[in-house]
User: What shape does this take?
Amino acid sequence: MTGKVFLIGAGPGDPELLTLKAARLLGEATCVVYDRLVSAEIVAMAASDARMIFVGKMPKCHPVTQDRINEILAEQAAAGHRVVRLKGGDPLIFGRGSEEAAYLAMRGIEVEYVPGITSAQGAASVSGVPLTHRGLATAVQYVTGHRQSDKVLDLDWKRLADPDTTLVVYMGVANIGQIAMGLMTEGLQGSTPVMAISRATTPQERRMVSTLAGIAADTRDAGLEPPTLFVIGRVVSLYPAQAAEMQEVAANG
Assistant: This one.
């Protein structure tokens, strides 16, 4: 009998931010296919006899391709497994969950989504920087700072360069200089505050506050690496450390 695949968001890293439904399904799974950004504490919540399959990727290093991940999910479900596909954040926000679901649906395999707290929400909650705030931001936009196969980052800079909108950039470390230049070229002030936060909600979390004009150099000097999220906009002026001085803040103080 064909099994079922649950596409589950593991959240930004803190195991206490996992939803109750996700935790229950993880404990009931007979097979768990998980990404690099899923914390070890969450992986450990799987049943002791579950089959564990790691399919993590790193920038420019994909030992298990997306096509192969799709095949693994289908193979495990076809073998009758109750499969949990664990993804960092939410499976429907830059998580490729819909691609996997479409592949499985074409093969008659039942799929269910379980949402997770996004990296943006996690970063906002731990830093105290809201994504929207009356008088500072009336909207928020999520964009990817990376294109498949390192293609040109052809974002709609004019639309994104809105001072009344908070811009959240996922996967943008390598291209943050290009992103900042594109926004400034379309009129967003170089003095616009930017927060970079790496591994939000985990013990390895690091934060840095800069400006749009300075974020590329500051990110490089701080040695920030993926996964790092960038929050661009006036809401960053509410960051508690901003009133004192723009500086890097390590999670351990």
About this structure: Residues 243-253 have pLDDT under 50 and may be disordered. The helical segments are 20-28, 40-43, 66-78, 97-105, 119-127, 157-160, 176-185, 215-222. The chain has two domains: 4-114, 119-250.
